[in-house]
Amino acid sequence: MAPPARYCVPGERLCSAEEATAGSGTYTRHGFIFSSLAGCLEKRSEDSGLPVVSVVRDAESQLLPDVGAVVTCKVCSINSRFAKVHILYVGSTPLKSTFRGTIRREDIRATEKDKVEVYKSFRPGDIVLAKVISLGDAQSNYLLSTAENELGVVVARSEAGVQMVPISWCEMQCPRTHTKDFRKVARVQPQFLQT
Amino acid sequence: MASVVLSEPEKLYIVHGVQEDLRVDGRGCEDYRCAEVETDVVSNTSGSARVKLGHTDILVGVKAEMGTPKLEKPDEGYLEFFVDCSANATPEFEGRGGEELGTEIANTLYRVFSSESSVDLKSLCINPREHCWVLYVDVLLLECGGNLFDAISIAVKAALFNTRIPKVRVLEDEEGSKEIELSDDPYDCIRLNVDDVPCIVTLSKIGYRHVVDATLQEEACSLASLLISVTSKGALTSMKKVGKGSLDPESIFEMMETGKRVGKSLHIALQKILDEEESLGTSRQKVGFLG
Amino acid sequence: MPLDHRRVRGPEESQPPELWAAAGEVPVEGEEGEDKDAAPRDPCDLRPLFARAGLLSQAEGSAYVELGGGTKVLCAAWGPREAAEPGAAAPAGTGRLLCEFRRAPFAGRGARWRPGSASEREAEREAAAALQEALEPAVRLARYPRARLAVSALLLQDGGSALAAAISAASLALADAGVEMYDLAVGCALCRSPGPAAAWMLQPGEPEERRAVARLTVALLPALNQVSAVLGGGQGSSPDAWVQALRLGLDGCHRLYPVLRQSLLRAARRRDATAAAAATAATA
User: Fold this and answer.
1) Which CATH number fits domain B8-280: 3.20.20.105, 1.10.287.470, 3.30.230.70, 3.90.1170.20?
2) Is there a contact between A62 and C146 if contact means CB atoms under 8 Å apart?
3) What keywords tag this UniProt record (chain B) (predicted)?
4) Sequence spans of domains, chain A
């Protein structure tokens, strides 16, 4: 049986900063590594260099959308200039409360930005993969972008209420009525497809 | 609160200056800015004072009104503080914006004056349980240029010094009903003894040192300050940490020592000015506002 | 004449009879006498403190702190949420910590406070501001850009040293919620009774606090040895006396810290154990 796990509380000194590198749930001050969470101490040695010391909580520690993070969101409203979304997941971690974000028209795709039309890219209810490009300023909330091949709509329903199938990077088709709808479709990476 | 935006190099410049005991405006760490004190500036009040400390401008008016004593203290009058952060000082105070700061300052003043010795409240009693004088101390922020608390406390002390409360007598007729009679002579009035009224000294921690009377720029460099109230005898009556940061114990002890030293000399200087103004009497030339 | 049921037929204000009894030259001895028996206590004595973290099921983090003598504080904390009004007040790049302090209507001794009355709201807001100032240095707000953390303290019973207990409980609740913190904040209260030679006493009870001429609440971040809150006032005394009081208070904080730490460790173990049990149950 493994030795009993060491638990620590915020502010507890774990070790000297020379013996290890600070991982998640820790901070460094005055040359020492301190815990910043109440949780279980973990020391992972890596083949090269110093072991990484981190403090983990069993419950997923609350993540916040960060610049550069890929997030999963749901479109809640659109207008001619931007789409408003609710951020539901950061990476593969569900958020405990939703955060609002905005995808501006010029951030929808990388090319021909001036010809983009929001209603030809998203519809309310779509599930979209997007990347956080800014935390926003005093007036706006999180700014998101889908200007990459891997980003865009992943799940959308047609007017008949059936989940549509992507047929190109900018179109989706309803399997029942065979009507085509415009979307900014994401080419989902195979590693994300396991369900 | 009114705040300025400083770049990192500007902050560094200020912090390094403080380290060398030389501040941006040429003062040392324990020096106050030049202060102007003028009493009796508003004629509709029982006592008033205006204090200008650098770019901080405070007007305090004291009005004495008759009220009923508080239940717990039937033989004492009491003080009421109200701080109005007018939008003149900074546009952030418009509407309800200044309310939070106003209550914070008022609460601090209540704490500073909570000590029984600061003002002789018993002298404000007219007849126990029924009538007493209530001193409404209204503080107006005309301009915010850092170090509000110190300037306000100086102004409050000056205004209380200036306060004249009319003398009244309680007459009792044979049926036991009481009547209050106001003295005929308008110059027949009570003065408050302000010898024990404390002044607030704010010590802002900047880098490894602390400064008194920080300007707005210096306040932006300071994460935590210690606010202490000192009487003219050098006794501390209250203390409070303000700001987002924390302080290490040793520096708090040092700050208290500095605060006492600075506070004592502040009291001496203030008392000198007040006595001078008093001796001039009506012959004093009034400067008034923007003078 | 029809009766107006909405109007309370009585005076607008009422006063307890004790106030008038004292004026009638009848010495009130009972209470004084019983206090005198308890008076000679060691000023360095701490009242027993009970702390438990992680007891509310709905809140992300919670804590309960009870001091011997009757102070009971319940705290709940909620992890990062989207700031209601984006970017307001908080400097860019950091989160905001919102603190709330409520007193139960029956918390105090004597007459019931009218909930929502102006003076009550004022007192609560002041305590909340003090709580926020004590906790802010302990929380790594830079880790939560554009988000808000909330902590609310509910004072169930006020038996003295309430703010200090609330600071300890709130920092436990935040740690229990998994909020990244530099350190726990430990609060401790002191008071000085009237009399020239009276010494400062740690963690006063309600009667001691009521009679005191000077009160002080300190909060310490023990691991960093930083003072995050100093709040006190009363009769003037020399800086040396206040320094002594501060030292005593900080020493009290250091002595309380192990209790809080233990309670947090216990909560963390319990949480892991239940999670492990749930996992084995799910696989079975």
Assistant:
1) 3.30.230.70
2) no
3) Acetylation, Cytoplasm, Exosome, Nucleus, RNA-binding, rRNA processing
4) 7-56, 70-189
